[in-house]
Amino acid sequence: MATTTETTLSGLFAEVAALLPLTAFDPIGLDPAPLEDRVVTFARDLLQRAQALRTEIGERLDGADRGLKAYDDAVTGPDRVKAAVDALKAMIGDDVLVVPEFKPSADLADDWRRARDDSARLTAHLTAEHDYPVDDWVHGVARVREKPRLWRRPSTSVTLRGPGGLLSNLDGWQEPQLTPVQLPYRQDDSWLAMEFRAGTRIVEDRLLFTAHYASQPLLGGGSWCGLLLDEWTEVVPAAEETTGIAVHYDGPDSEPPQAMLLVVPPVQRENGTWLPSDLLAAVNETFALARIRAVEPHHLDDTAYAQFLPATLISATRQPITISTDLAVSNLRWKAQAHD
Question: Which of 126, 191, 228, 285 could in theory staple to 133 by disulfide, Cβ–Cβ 3.0 to 4.6 A?
Answer without folding.
Answer: 126
